[in-house]
């Protein structure tokens, strides 16, 4: 039992340490990555409306050509810096690669020629950019393997692609392949790099927000010193109503890890609970073993063995078990690595590098040492407790010292406390995930609703011909026999970018609202309920009178307590409100719905569209047909992303699911081990107290009186554990709060569930030993004494 408990706890520790090592500890695959920083622009008041804008993204604003131009010839606090225009910050670097299989849109990056020198990256195959090179490309390892079969002769080959805002066709030569470990953007990797000339930067609109800057700190320069020095290079003309923008620096590693730190710290804390509980379980098993060896130890003391010698033996035995458990745990993790990588939240940086590295083995060694100390504690203290010399006659008594008994009871109580606390934490996270998945979304996230993203980047699709193209697209899709309804929209809930518009309420106050441009069938496809009025119709697209459908939240904000139908979005003119629909959680299931309104898409089309389709067909057939139809209507414009709404929803809560699964699995496994360990412990107690039970039976004691001495210390330990565990959960709730949804600090439901489950398992573990005690043959036991 000790071996199994420690193997599980050490294995869990090894698994989580391997993840934390890959994400938080292992340096990025750059030369001296600690010296690499991003330079960001942050406008004042960026966090004023986190319900409409992503605070993390707004705090990391990209830079303008005018700002970068001011740096030329200046003494900057960097050894070197590179300018980057990434697919994350604009459409221009999204490269359309043309092959015999059609057009594939790649995640590209334009960068100055020195970018790989700044990063300290050397190619795995070929070379990187030289100054003033054009029409060359460096590709990622993933693209090399996917599109070119990992052929080392790819260097020198040419590829046809469309690049830039004008989508001009270009033929570029592939000159290099980056190492497999190199990633520049997370969670999705940059797949192709093209050179960015300084002359190109100078020709861009001066105040266009386009560029990221990655820099290497100079020797001996701290990030704080460099950030202070960069304040002098902020553009005084770059102002908002709240004041001038500022420049700030962030380490590349910190940017990559992002918000993953908190989740990993949470899981690490749960792992520590598992390790402590596993060690306590093992210590309880050793305690039971020690009780049966008291006579042996007294004989050894009588023969001259020192307390230190006996304590060393106890720790040696514990170390042997812990070391074997460590080997078993590491072997189990090694086998389970593919499943572990698949279980981590989507987009976790370094997830593909999770493995048994040096830091993981160091962590396993620490866990083994800790387990050895805890598991060997009772035997060592028991031996040290027999300070007086014992005679061989005394060795017939096998009772542990009172101090050792109290220590054993304390360990049992600690075990109940830890298991109950872990169960409470697991219950909170599982209930939180349930709350997230069953929150009122305002739309139907179904496996029968498909969403396809199309970014129309070719200039041919940037005029008023949008309506004609979209009409043809919808006509062809609706002709599919399995399509029940189809629509086009500028954005979909949980994915895509909603436009934000500032409105003026009738009382003169200003407010913000999301605006979505939708086809009339959008509400049917998405399953958004109509509350009042009517939906949009094809007749609304003539433009003679602008109309809109508003969400309930916007209606309440504009006209509290009044009927909004027939009124206007802004003051007393403009867009007229014709209907009210349910609120939709557009940004996240974790955030309340924001005010929103819907305009007819035909009146204001956008380059980005989402095709949403409600079907009765399986995913593979739908995906193939939708891609074929999009290619037919928009030649050369690939489908960026295609998935069911259910899958999109699942991806957005993958981190919450991972926390719930990990916590629930840890709690369930540890609960089973606790029950088995407790049953084994009580079996030893029955053997240890058989003489006492036999005497009680001979004196006519009832069944309850005979069992009471066996279970009294268990009941006391259980009561202490289940009472203290909610207090521990209450005090530690601030650490868990960022990861739960709809859960209060005084979560009595989780407290009750944890205490009840532990109590039931304890009662089940008591059943077999109690039955053995009741079946003891009192006459046979007393005769053998």
Please, could you describe this protein's structure?
There is one protein chain. This protein is 47% helix and 18% strand. The model is unreliable at 387-398 (pLDDT under 50). Strands 16, 17, 18, 19, 20, 21 and 22 form a 7-stranded mixed sheet that branches. The chain has 785 residues and is α+β, with helices and mostly antiparallel strands. The protein is built from 25 helices and 24 strands. α14 crosses α24 (748-774), α15 (466-478) runs antiparallel to α18 and α21 packs across α22. The chain starts with a helix and ends with a helix.
Number of helices: 25
Through-space gap between termini: 29 Å
Tally of strands = 24
The proportion of residues in beta strands is 15-25%
Instruction: Report on the biggest sheet.
Output: 7 strands, mixed
Break the fold down into its secondary structure elements and pairings.
Layout (H helix, E strand, L loop, with lengths): L1 H24 L10 E7 L12 H5 L5 H5 L8 E9 L7 E6 L2 E10 L3 H5 L5 E2 L9 E4 L1 H8 L9 E6 L4 E10 L14 E4 L2 H6 L8 E6 L5 H8 L8 E2 L2 E2 L1 E6 H6 L2 H32 L2 H9 L4 H37 L14 H18 L1 H9 L16 H36 L11 E7 L10 H13 L4 E7 L9 E6 L5 E9 L3 H5 L3 E4 L13 E5 H7 L9 E3 L2 E9 L14 E5 L7 E8 L3 H15 L5 E6 H8 L1 H35 L1 H9 L4 H29 L1 H4 L11 H27 L3 H7 L1
What is the gist of this entry?
The chain is an alpha+beta fold.
